[in-house]
Amino acid sequence: MGLRTWHSMDARSFNKATAVSGVRNGIGKDLRSRYRRLWTYSVLFTAFVSLTPLGIMTLVNYAQYRKAMAAETDHLISRIASNSQRFMDGFLEERRAALSYVASRESYEDLCDQEKLNRVFRDMKQSFGGLVDLGVIDSDAIQRSYVGPYELEGRNYKDQDWFHEVCIRGAYVSDVFPGFRNVPHFVIAVRRDTGTEGSLYVIRASIDTEVLRRHVASLDLPPGSDAFLINHKGIGPTPSRQRGAILDRCPIATPPFSAQPQVLEVTTTEGEPRILGYAYIQQSPFVFVVLMRPEDVMHGWLRLRNEILWLFGVSVVLIMAVILGSSTFLVNRIREADRRRDEALHSIEYTDKMASIGRMAAGVAHEINNPLAIISENAGLLKDLISMRQQPPDRDRTLKIAEAVLRSVERCSTITHRLLGFAKRMEPLTERISLGPLLEEVLSFQRKEAECRNIAIGLSVPPDLPIIESDRGQLQQVFLNILSNAFAAVPRRGAHRHPPGAGKAGHGGRHHQRQRLRNPRRVYRADLRAVLQHQRRLRHGTGPLHHLGHRGEAGRPHRRAKRGRPGRRVYRALARSQANLNHGTLEHTPG
Amino acid sequence: MKKLKVLLVDDEQEFVETLADRLAIRDLQTSTANNGQEALSAVEQCEPDVIVLDLKMPGLHGIDVLKRLKDAYPNVEVIILTGHGSQKDEEAARGLGAFDYLKKPADFETLVTQIQRAFQRRLQKLERMAMAAAFAEAGEFETARKIMEENGP
Predict the structure, then answer these.
(1) Chain B positions in Cβ-Cβ contact with residue A494 (cut-off 8 Å)
(2) pLDDT tens across A197-235, in order?
(3) pTM of structure
(4) CA A375 to each of CA A272, A370, A447: distance values in angstroms, whole numbers, following the listed order
(5) ipTM field
(6) Taking a C-beta distance cutoff of 8 angstroms, is the pair A162, A142 a contact?
(7) What is the distance in angstroms between the CA of the first residue and the CA of the last residue of chain A?
């Protein structure tokens, strides 16, 4: 086997060996970095996988709950506005209808009668309430009669807007105005025609805003919330918590008209967010407005939101604690497993090394036996020469024996030192190595084995082969294993072994013929002569056959015995007997 | 009296020469061979009574040499003397008819004793062969066969 054939085989093993040495040199830092990276990746990946669904679920829940809670809040505010709208509509319509009823039942003259007007006003207050005063105004806009807390009889309302409106519309709910009493109020007025062309009178009642205030108070709004009536200018007939007095301007703009109650998110003039619910009061200039702070309205949602966030936060903390704990535990287990694996690998390497040493030791023991035998025989020869002859052996002979002994001792020493050199390198140590001498050293272990296996080893080391840094012992082991494997791959006794009966023209036929005995006659010529002599003695009754009780028969020739050359007959007889013994066939070659 | 002829086969030239010298001092006729092929050639030329054969040699392995020798000359006695012996080799050698199996470095006196005992066995074999030949020539083939069987391989 040429070394060139396993140069390619050893490359992987060599690289592995050098890599192992390199890894071991920087193993501590790399391993720590690797485990830290592994821990980081494990934590990040597990956290991503665990927290992403939780986060998505939390966001979805957050959005859905918020939407649901916003809808519920809208519904609540809208219901407040709607209820208040119905209440206001009913309240105003009720009083307007009452005034219309009074106007239709009572005559103008009766209504101008102070006594009668008092009675009507008293009846209306008892039946409906919510009225401050009651007055009758003629077509010249002069109040003819009046019942109430102010001195308004005889006042002329010709310049009052509400008077013109009621004259035109027939019934009218006025805007808030201070009037002659100089107190913000609003009125409901009903026009009544007297029957005479161009003659009319108006029955007017001032509305008690306390009723509206009580209604607002009955809404039981949160402290930060507010509800009131405003007109298109932002002022209204009811006081409010934030707006202050009746004629103070509302902190928000008048919302756009809508027949249905609406809910909007607005910002006050102070820049504070508010939820606005409003409803336009029919047949009046007023809008019912309810303003609520988001935190008051959304307190349920905010509590839920806080609970969701708390739940999310606690879940994240718990999950992260579990992830960190489990990742740390797993990485520690992996580190421990790696450590055990490394120990096992080191143990395997050690075992492999010991096995190699064991194999080599066996070979070395055998190798040492030969020089020992030479030493033994030379010493014995010297002893023989001294003890068996009278004079001592001559000087040259003695020197030759001594030199043979010394050569054998040196041979033993070389073998044992080589083995020790291999065995002592147990711990990995990186050093500069020239591969040529290393290969020579390894080959020296196996050269005898190769010779006996008829394996030729050729070593071809390029002169420019660079010096490498590696562990000498491991490289020796790698090359030794490669050599052992290569030997095992070659059939025993190599190309020199051929099956019996291989053809002449077959593989190795000529060589096989050369090895075969040229004349396998099964007996030496000398043996044949000895046997013939024995046979002659037997014929004359002097041989060992007498002791076997065959004297008579052996003493004379058998009747079937053929005459001829006695040697040939005996040889054939021997051959026949041997053939029978071996259960084979008899083959006679003449001559 | 005819000298006992011993063929020493070993690839250690120094060893066989020294051993031959010692055996010669013991009045044994020796010849040497350094590998299996030489041994097979030498056995035809010198017709040894006993062959002292090494196992691990370049070329033919000792077991192969033993097998060929026993195939060709069943009556020759072979003593294995090796430094690389193993249980497996010993069993194989004894199975092929080796007279004894000794390991290097062997005690020289033991070796000489075993050579002489091997020679005695060879003489017994030859005697039995003569008896068998006589019976065979007399037509008593069965008796001759039994005698030859006692000779063994």
Answers:
(1) none
(2) 668 889 999 988 888 888 888 888 888 788 888 887 777
(3) 0.49
(4) 115, 9, 22
(5) 0.84
(6) no
(7) 46
